[in-house]
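Sharing a chain and its predicted structure for anyone who wants a worked example. Both blocks are below, sequence first, tokens second.
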Amino acid sequence: MKFQPERSDAQTIRGYGPGWIAIDQDKISHSLIISASGLRQAWDCQRFEDLTPEHFAQIAAIPAELVLFGSGTRSRFVPPAWLQPLIDRQIGVETMDTAAACRTYNILASEGRNVVAALLLE
């Protein structure tokens, strides 16, 4: 039986705080989308109130088995209709505050899961 964790090549969230996230060696201060497969791109929204259905259609175009939506400093839910592009592609969606999404992303990515995190930084 092995007790040491498997090594993962997925990018890792090394830290987070109000208005920032550290991924690998970079400190980022804007909303972003990352994936275990190496995708890292800006996500054009600064507040929860700025989100639109198009933001979730953008995420649905990324191959994934699960999307973690980090909704900012607290857990907030978008209208279910906005998630339809993800549902149509049979991509699971979990909503939580951004800090919880960071922690969950690291766990799933280290397990080799095809996970995407859409992280709102307010």
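Comments welcome. The two ends are 44 Å apart (CA to CA).
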